[in-house]
Amino acid sequence: MPGIPIRYQSADEDSSRWADFPFRPGDIVISTRSKCGTTWMQMICALLIFGDSVLPARLSTLSPWLDWLGSPRTQVFDRLAAQTHRRFIKTHTPLDGLPLDPHATYIVVGRHPLDMAVSLYHHVDNLNRERIAMLTGHDDPPPPRRTRPGLREWLLAWIDRDVAPGEQLDSLPGVLWHLSDTWARRAAPNVVLIHYDDLLADLDGEMRRLAERLGILLPAARWSALVEAASFDHMRGQADQLAPNPDGVLNSSSAFFRRGRSGAGREQLTDAELEHYRTRAARMVPSDLFAWLHRDSA
Fold it and tell me: Which CATH superfamily, name and number, covers 15-297?
């Protein structure tokens, strides 16, 4: 497949690795922003594909992160080529940076951006920066980390950071660009858009809806065990197998599963600050997407 539409790059990722990726019919691509439910959706897909609450290997082995520069491209491609099960591949690249194969399904999870940002703030503290630099081929060690502001101060600065979406995909403009692009494609038969809060509110129902979209049929007797295995408490209890930490890039696998609920971002802000956020975010997305994404607006 020739090239990719838009190339997204960072110190750790490069979407050009998707160029000429040999898709198979039935492939699943999980395209989410950081801390928006990537690992959760990988787990849900694994449970639906294998039909068992006990996975045959580590989740990151079953569902490789194709864009990550910490694993050589040929190694990732060879691993995927050797897989005989239905493949489900992780990426943080928006859909406009991916080859859109008509025989593959693309799943995007949307989360309230303030909740995503709070999770990202804590996640950064759990990253082993030296290990990441080594794996991604940066010869010089990362500079000493500057003292970060407290969460509330950082969150207010995150809301107002004015950057191009493609330059910082985990910024507010980047998060909303990823979702806006998906929103415009949501009627496509091979694009599935899921809200993080819907997974929290009705995990059973959302898993059944996804199974239907993926054409997966499972015996009714298995459902309760699969839904339980996809719960936050179960996943946190299996952190060593499920956290994306095969190469020691996290300081703690269990800390990766920190909270698993919504509202943390809004708890940090005054009513006036929250209204400022809403005004700024509303300028970046269509009104119907804004209403869908922000369940706190009612």
Answer: P-loop containing nucleotide triphosphate hydrolases (3.40.50.300)
